[in-house]
Amino acid sequence: MTTVPKFVIGNWKMQARHEHGLQLARDISRRLKDAPPPPHLHTIICPPFTQLDGVHQALKETGLPHEQLGMGAQDCYPASSGPFTGDISAPMIRDLGARYVILGHSERRQNHGETDAIIRQKVKAATAAGITPIVCIGEHLAERNEGRAASVLSTQIEGSLTRGFRGILAYEPVWAIGSGITPSRDELQRKLTLIRALLPMRLMTDDIRVPVLYGGSVTSVQAPSIMSIEAVDGVLVGSASLEAQSFLDIIDAAAEATTPQPSP
Ligand code: PEP
């Protein structure tokens, strides 16, 4: 049995209204309570801020440890409190049961002008509040086509991670998000190998193992192939996490692809 944890993370974005979100959390929880995935597979659900409390209650009712079934928020503010109208701090999301927070998603980089420096401040804030940051990096299509992906990823790793970063990294090529297109196995393997090579320089040590996930148009159809790539520690799922059965199918596929089969 593998001891390296693998992750399936659902990012609901701003897409489920209150009752829908809670029902989704209950449906996922019920199935995972009846048939829990193997302990090395960590499932994390990231609802909008307004549903954190309700989703946390639904997940808790499974009785599964938070490592196996946890909850994350989709952002947090760099300061822990203060006159920041409309913002929500890391300690606030921690109060509602969040153990993780997605930071630097390309939609926030694009729509809110988040820079690597801001993301790094958020990483510090999350870590100080006892929350594991899930930092997203990824190149745009033009950057990929112009052969600049490696330098973009290197800049993002250097700029958005802290030294000694203890969190999760998600490689999410912007051109794969919501497009129905996923990189080939070969491209994914190359990109993740590159990311793994860049990490020790930023961490200033190679003893820290940072899980590196893939995100972008993952469905239960591609999940087995993606999860079987050795360098991939899990998947970050957007659209397909908004329907209980499709998210559960991805969890099942990830469990199957990462659980060693007994030799005949
Ligand atoms: C995402 O936005 O993080 C994501 C992976 O979205 P999708 O799965 O819908 O491409």
From TrEMBL:
Residue ranges of the TM segments? none
Q: Which domain of life is it from?
A: Bacteria
Question: According to the UniProt entry, what is the EC number of this protein?
Answer: 5.3.1.1
Which GO molecular function annotations are given, in alphabetical order? triose-phosphate isomerase activity
Going by the UniProt record, its keywords in alphabetical order are: Cytoplasm, Gluconeogenesis, Glycolysis, Isomerase
Q: Where does substrate bind?
A: 11-13, 178, 217
Pathways involved: Carbohydrate biosynthesis; gluconeogenesis; Carbohydrate degradation; glycolysis; D-glyceraldehyde 3-phosphate from glycerone phosphate: step 1/1; Carbohydrate metabolism; erythritol degradation
User: Could you give the subunit structure recorded for this chain?
Assistant: Homodimer.
Return the PANTHER family for the record. TRIOSEPHOSPHATE ISOMERASE
Concerning NCBIfam families, the annotation shows: tim
What does this chain do?
A: Involved in the gluconeogenesis. Catalyzes stereospecifically the conversion of dihydroxyacetone phosphate (DHAP) to D-glyceraldehyde-3-phosphate (G3P).
Its protein name is Triosephosphate isomerase
**Organism of derivation:** Bombella dulcis
Question: Source gene?
Answer: tpiA
